[in-house]
Amino acid sequence: xxxxxxxxxxxxxxxxxxxxxxxxxxxxxxxxxxxxxxxxxxxxxxxxxxxxxxxxxxxxxxxxxxxxxxxxxxxxxxxxxxxxxxxxxxxxxxxxxxxxxxxxxxxxxxxxxxxxxxxxxxxxxxxxxxxxxxx
Length: 135
What we know:
Helix content is 46%, strand content 24%. The protein has 6 helices and 5 strands, in the order βαβααβαβααβ. The protein is globular. It starts with a strand and ends with a strand. The model is unreliable at 108-115 (pLDDT under 50).
């Protein structure tokens, strides 16, 4: 395991997963990539375009902070996709050995039944997926 992918939506659960992934990368000598996937539908909104720059800047800053704090190689990647999150992450998989993702558990009954955001990622992934709970 040399390359770890850690999707983020900048939530507390994602931040916890990033910290875990960074410690894992530090221990194993792996590289870490923080990934944010935006929706193509957000780009179609002309009011959202300035936000893309802010999101990219925040992702790059977070990557830099992880590199400095954990003394590891950490980069960032931002992609825009029309696909569901699990399939969008799957497209990135050939470059990685492990996916580390945070979860806060289901938000409501529908998320409990459907498995929330994490379950589709697990189902779509050909790589091992490590779920890190928010707490």
